[in-house]
């Protein structure tokens, strides 16, 4: 038995590793392997943040409990297959079943004609679907879960085959809020790492926003950077349907650790703070471009200005035309219009001596005299003026002298927590410290 368990854990590891590369193809295989060996004691913590564990957990959940079957009897035992996927925007009953490995014309006809089932393909895409088929790929059961608009409960659509044929029903289920821990290491990009850790995009974007004063996620990331995060989720039957707010996070960038926790005083607007009670936000953001999946893939290029290269006093950000541009600090618009060479240009006065200038914009969304808060959108990336490709040109002048915008962000002041809230903050910080440490420990364990 001991040997059996050891080989199981080896199997689990092999499966986990290959899942990283071929999640969907391996899923069906996992179902087969696990049924073949009758693994019911395949214990994985429901909150396991390890990149490879989560898809495995999904398969385990959908398996019926099978009696222990010796490995050499595998071939004689009929088995069921379980697969999960999400409904895509352009999916039809046929394309969905095909992707889920169902080969069943009766089920296809039912799915096409049934009024309840049609809800699968209406409204928002991304509904989570799990199917159970027999070894002939006949559909035994299909379950889909999604959030209706009120988002306090979720919809569960169940199609089932019985001796009377196929039937369907629509149920409402209660969403379960919970906290998740996750961690990861950057190898190529933040999204590659958060995908590997099974983190929703919403959490990745929040991570980038939380540390936006310290790290420019489009330019500063290094291979080997690490993150840990504690965030809220809403689950339906154990499947996460929506990620909520990040409660605490740590990010080690280029050897330097940044940490933040969410703190909200009742009746006040919440914000992120360091464990020392200093606000994670500073007077200036490190980047005028928000971090998104689309723009993050856009690499740095050489300065795309044609002709003779003049002395270049500014920072260029390669980004696609139309990417939103935001003000890096509070201020007042002092210029909005056309400037020779610069094309569509915005200048923002942040203090008596601090001015930022945004050039080559495709669109200007603000007017002269308008008051702006940090992070507000002011226009969009373009290629107007003297520019041969879409990019944003940013200048930061202090008393008329050019400065490095990123350096200015780094050196800008933090806002300290109101001292009256300190005791409450410290109590929260203690709990968050433990959770964040747990997330980090899990990462180290999975790396070993
Ligand atoms: Zn430039």
Please give a handful of descriptors for the protein shown.
single chain, disordered N terminus, seven-stranded antiparallel sheet, about 450 residues, about 25% helix, alpha+beta, five-stranded antiparallel sheet, binds zinc ion
Describe the structure.
The chain is built from ten helices and 22 strands. The N terminus is likely disordered. The two termini are about 25 Å apart. Helix 1 runs antiparallel to helix 2 and helix 2 crosses helix 3. The radius of gyration is 26 Å and the shape is globular. The longest helix has 26 residues. It has about 450 residues and is an alpha+beta fold. The chain binds zinc ion. Zinc ion binds next to loops.
Give the topology, please:
Blueprint (H helix, E strand, L loop, with lengths): L1 H20 L1 H15 L15 H10 L18 E6 L6 H7 L5 H9 L14 E6 L5 E8 L6 E10 L2 E10 L1 E10 L4 H7 L4 H10 L15 E11 L2 E15 L2 E8 L7 E3 L4 E5 L10 H4 L18 E4 L5 E3 L4 E9 L3 E7 L4 E8 L1 E2 L6 E2 L4 E4 L10 E8 L2 E3 L1 H7 L2 E3 L5 H26 L1
Bound molecules: zinc ion.
């Amino acid at each position: 038995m001991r040997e059996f368990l050891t080989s199981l854990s080896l199997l689990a590891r092999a499966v986990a590793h290959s899942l990283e590369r071929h999640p969907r193809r391996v899923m069906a295989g996992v179902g087969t392997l696990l049924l073949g060996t009758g693994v019911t004691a395949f214990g994985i913590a429901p909150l396991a943040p390890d990149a490879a564990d989560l898809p495995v957990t999904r398969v385990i959940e959908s398996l019926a409990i099978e009696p222990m079957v010796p490995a050499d009897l595998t071939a004689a035992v009929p088995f069921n297959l379980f697969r999960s996927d999400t409904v895509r925007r352009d999916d039809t009953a046929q394309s969905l079943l095909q992707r889920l490995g169902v080969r069943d014309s009766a089920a296809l006809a039912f799915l096409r004609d049934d009024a309840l089932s049609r809800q699968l393909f209406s409204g928002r895409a991304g509904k989570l679907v799990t199917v159970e088929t027999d070894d002939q790929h006949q559909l035994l059961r299909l379950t889909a879960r999604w959030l209706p608009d009120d988002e306090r409960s979720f919809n569960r659509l169940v199609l089932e085959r019985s001796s009377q044929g196929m039937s369907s029903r629509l149920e409402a289920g209660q969403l379960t809020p919970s906290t998740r821990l996750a961690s990861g290491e950057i190898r190529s990009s933040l999204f590659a790492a958060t995908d590997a850790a099974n983190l929703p995009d919403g959490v990745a974007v929040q991570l980038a926003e939380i540390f936006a004063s310290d790290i420019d996620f489009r330019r500063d990331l290094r291979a080997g950077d690490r993150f840990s995060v504690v965030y809220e989720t809403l689950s339906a039957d154990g499947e996460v349907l929506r990620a909520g707010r990040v409660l605490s996070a740590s990010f080690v960038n280029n050897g330097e650790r940044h940490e933040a926790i969410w703190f909200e005083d009742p009746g006040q607007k919440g914000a992120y703070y360091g464990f020392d009670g200093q606000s994670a936000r500073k007077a200036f953001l490190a980047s005028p471009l928000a971090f998104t999946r689309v723009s993050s893939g856009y690499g740095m290029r050489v300065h795309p200005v044609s002709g003779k290269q003049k002395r270049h006093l500014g920072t260029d950000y390669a980004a696609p035309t139309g990417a939103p541009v935001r003000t890096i600090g509070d201020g007042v618009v002092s210029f909005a219009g056309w400037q020779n060479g610069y094309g569509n240009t915005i200048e923002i006065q942040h203090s008596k001596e601090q001015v930022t200038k945004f050039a080559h914009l495709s669109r200007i969304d603000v007017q002269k005299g308008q008051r702006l808060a940090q992070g507000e959108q002011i226009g969009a990336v373009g290629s107007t003026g003297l520019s041969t490709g879409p990019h944003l040109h940013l200048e930061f002048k202090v008393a008329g002298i050019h400065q490095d915008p990123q350096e200015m962000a780094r050196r800008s002041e933090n806002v300290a927590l109101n001292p009256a809230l300190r005791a409450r903050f410290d109590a929260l910080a203690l709990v968050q410290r433990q959770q964040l440490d747990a997330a980090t420990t899990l990462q180290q364990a999975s790396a070993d």
